[in-house]
Every structure is written in C-alpha cells, then in structure tokens.
Amino acid sequence: MKRPISPSQIGRFLLGAFLLCILLASQAQANYTISNTLPYRSSYEVWTNGAPFFAGDFLNTNHGWFAEETNALVISTNFANYVGTYEGILPAWIGVGGITNFVGTNHQFVVELNSTATNKFTVATNAPQNISYIKRTYVDMMLKPRRWTLDDPPAVTGEVQMASYFDSNGVVWAWCKTSSVDKVWMITDSGEISTNEWIRFTVTLAYDQGLSTKRAFQMQVNGRALSTTKGQTVPTLGQPGSGGTWLWQTDTLRRYISSITLQGTGHFDDMMVMTNVPFFGIQHSIAVSGTNVVVDNSSLAGTRMVQVVDGNNKTFNVADATGYDVTNVVQDGTSTGTGPGAYIFNNVTTNHTMLIESKPEMRTLVVTTPMGSPTPSGTNVYLYNTTVLAGISGSPIAYGATTQFVCTGWARSVSGTPVGSGSSTSMSFKITGNSVAATTTVAWTWGTQHKLTVYTNQDFTGAGTIVNYASKSWFFTNETVTLEAVTNYGSTFTGWSGADTNYAIVSSNLLMFTNMTSPRIVTANFTGGTPPAPAKTTHGTPISWLRTHYPFDPDPDEIVDLKDTDLDGLFTWEEFIAGTDPTNTASVFEVRLSGIQDGSNFVMFFGGLTNTIDSLVLPFGIYRATNLLDAMPFTLLTNRIPRSSTGTNWFWQTSPAGARYFYRPVATNSAD
To answer: For residues 315 and 345, what is the distance between their CA atoms, to the nearest angstrom?
Structure first.
C-alpha cells in the first residue's frame, strides 16, 4: 500500500521509508513557526543530548521546526563510523552568502528522527524574480536513512518542487515529470546504500526564467550526481532527455522553497540551505586581480578568490568596464592576452593567479560661455573618471554705472543628456560617458542686472523709511520689485517722484516695478513730524554717542559715562561736551597754537568733533584775562565760535596796544 504525502505535509525527509519533499507553496499549520531565512546552517552541537528537538526552548528561538510527536526529533550522540567517514562535519562551502566551514572539533551530536506524522523545517527563500543570480538553491546534509519496506512507493500529491526516497534495496528514487507522464517515480543510478551508511545528500534546485516550465532539480550522493533514464543533461527544462542528471517538474511560476519535511525513522546532521554552490573535492584558489574590468559579468575592483575543484577547467570571461580598456592579461606571471576574451585554466591542480590590467579611455569636455573667464575653457580631453574642477571669474561685468552682467550658474550634459545644473560659479565633477565618442558639455549661464536707486526726501533723518526693499540694489531684468513708504514720528508721505515712476504701478504709498529692464531711480517724499530726542545719561551724554565709542563695553551706561579711558583727565561725559574722542589719547580739548599774525592775536585749539551720531553742535566760547592774579581774571569775549567737524578751531582778535592777553576756550552743553 502507499503512504501519501500532500501539501498539508509540506516537503519532508522520510527516513526508514526515506522521503525528501521540497514544497513551493506555503501552508498554515498550528504550533508552527516560519522564521529561518537563507542561508540556514546548523550542526546541532549547541543542544543537550537526549533533548526533544521541538522543546519549548528550541521552538521559541524560532528555528522553524515543528513535530506532532513529543520525541519526533531528539538530539543523540554521534556514531563512530560517522565520525570516521566525514570527520563529523560537512566539507567546506565556497561561494557568496557568508557561509563558513562547520567547526570540526567537539562534534558529537546528530538528530534522531522517529515520526510517522509530520516534521517540518521551513526556510524563507522567496526572492524577486528579476534578480538573475537567484537561480539556484541548495539543500545539503549528512544523512543515515532507512529503507522503504512497503509494497508500493509513497504517494505524493500537491505542488512539490522535488521528492525522493530509498527503496527496499537502498536505491534512490526521484519524483519527477516525463514526456508522457505528468508525475512519476523514477529510479536513479545511485546503487545500493547501506542501512548503516552515513551519506552526504545534496539537492540542487534550479529556477529558469522566461520558459513555460520553470523548475528542475538534481540529487547528489557523496558528491556524485544521480541520473535517470529520463533525465536532462542540463537544466534547460525543455523536453525530457535521456540519461541526464537533471529532472523537471510540472509548470509553475513559483520559484521558492516554503518548507522541507522529514518523515520516518533515521538520523541526519549538519543541514545547510542556501544559494552557495557546494563542492565535493579538493579545492584550489585562483586569485583574480584588477580594477576597472568586468570578469564573468561582474565588476572587479581588487582581488577576487575563485575556488575550483581539483582537475576541473575554469574559464574567465574578461570584458572592458565602461570607460576602460583591457590592456594586458597575465596568468601565473605570463602575459596571455591584451584585450577582452575568454581566458582558461585547464586541469586545475594547484593555486593560480590572474592579473588583468586596464587603462582609462579618453573623454572630451567642451566649455561654453558668452563672457567671463572660465577654467577650463574651450575643448579639452581628459581620462575617463577624472575629477574636473571648473569655475568662472569676472562676474559681475560692469556695463556703465547702472547695468552689469552676472553669471547665474551652469548646466552640464553628457552627449546631449542633462546630468546636472547649479547656481554657483565653481563646481567639480567626474568625466564620464559610455564611449570614447561621448562629449561632456559645461555651459556657463549669464543674466543682465540693472541698478535700482532709492532716495528719501524728508524734513529730518528718520521721518520716513522704505520697506520691502531688498538689501541689494541690483536686479535681474525679469524681477519684480515692490517698494513701500512708511512714515515715522508723525510725518506725512507726500508721494513718489522721479521720471522712472512712469514705469511703475503706484497705489498710495506702494510702488511696484513689474520688471527691471532698465536702471530705475525713485524718491519717496516725507514732510513734517517731530524727531525724537535721544536717550541720555544723567550728565546728558546721548546713549547713541556713548555706544558708538564703546560698542562692546559690558558696564552700564552710567558707569561708562564716568570713565577716563584715554587718561587725559576728562570723563567720558566731559569729552562729549568738548567734542573729543574718549578712547583716543591724542584727542584732547586743548590750545595747540597761539600768537600774533598781521596785527591780530590768534588761538588755535582742538575739539568739537561732530562725526559721531548725536554729537554736540553748540558753539565754543572764549574767555580773556590781562592779569591771572585778579580774583576774577577772565571775562567772556564770545560764545559763538562754530565747532569745526575736523576738530581744529580758530579764534582771532585785533591785538590791543601795550597790553598782554591770556585766552581760554570753553565748551558747554547749555544754549544759554
């Protein structure tokens, strides 16, 4: 009788009626965790001898195993003949995916299977089908099977990727499709496998693309591929062949494993499920070195170690990388070619080296600009992938006093295809292009700017301001500029004036130029209002004047007003009255020259600087005395000497006959 297996018993190893099924479609199952992702590897050495495999601690670690029987999977001590045959480990794996060898030391546990129901192990291998290199998945393990003893072979139903079992003679059978039968058991040429023999059982799953039939598989025992009378020689998934090692299944679009199911009695160990290519003999390394080349459709940058089974041939297909030409191929120190092609190592029995040399191709750069001085300029030739530092100087270029030309940025293209742009006057990029005919173009762009000049006509400074006016005074021809006049201190805005207002839209205190196609001049007019009195210290020094001379002094204003920073004997507030700089030792209120010239007495004294905001502008006075010993020797001659903004002040008086005069200048902050 037949013992059936179906999608609800997703792909299994049946040991002691050994059946391996790999299913494509996922199925839901209670108490079952789908968690493993490729690559999966386990030597089962971290578990306790005699412990059930599906126990809570193991299942909770999400290894993806499930069993209905309590003792379906049990860790047991390894067997001596197993250790002697394979040293307790699978041979090393070579390929992408990050899998390293199993550790051979302290390897003593295997998994004992004893179940007539379901034992599932699931790996997630569903991959996007547009990834060309996901075309092979490998299931590799050590196995000590038992034979199928029933009259009929096991029945397999549902959509499975592959299934196999050992018959009563220890021969492997495969579940596959032939030209006349959709699915049938086919005997292989495995020969008899002893019931006490540990074997390495490897399954390769092939996923072809673009054909109506998508799936094939190959089985290997101890590294030898098993063949059948209906097998293919290569996994082309076309019509069945004769005597090949590749078997195929029914049409399907699914290309992933949903689970592997083990059923029966027996032992297994060291399971791997991954996309790495296994090997079954001595490996030799070929060190392929080079940069900017393509080897076997993959870019090479550095050294790639390629493993080859002893005695096999290895062909490397060398091609030019974009922008580079292969110039020399050196195999084991000998040059064997000067360009792309197939390079072969025959009968590999030792390690080899292969060095591929290349050089960059030339590319053309063309720089254009209507003005300015670009660097580089004109037509240039560079090696592919060279970094170019490009810039332009001379911007802006004046055209009269009120018009200028400004560089607005750059645009870069490769063979007519835009690849970048920006608003700076410098940038860097790499020369690219798919062929030597490719040309990179950098075009510097320019624009015209005109100057906008704005004035205010007002009774006093600050009676009105213009807002919404950018800090710049130059505008591009297509820019819109809006001005707004705002009154201060009770003043009145009386309107805009200037010939260029004829080109503007005026609405009360708003004026807008819709473009700046020419230079513009406009005036905002204000009248009336009362300017505010400046804030002052106790001694009457304006705060604005004080902070002009002491912009960073942290002390309070009243303290600063009492300082003598320049040590000239005058406090800060006194220097304000005298019109001198309180921080300059050379700025002193003093008589610097006196004498008689052309019959007149003269006195020249320093003070009265008015170049600081809110400086005192009251005139100086002059006192005169004839005898300094008198109780009241000085009398006021005048208090109407104007302050000179330069600080040099003069007083003249006709010289009296027969008398000696003493003069003394004075400063005051009182208008009386």
So the answer is: 6
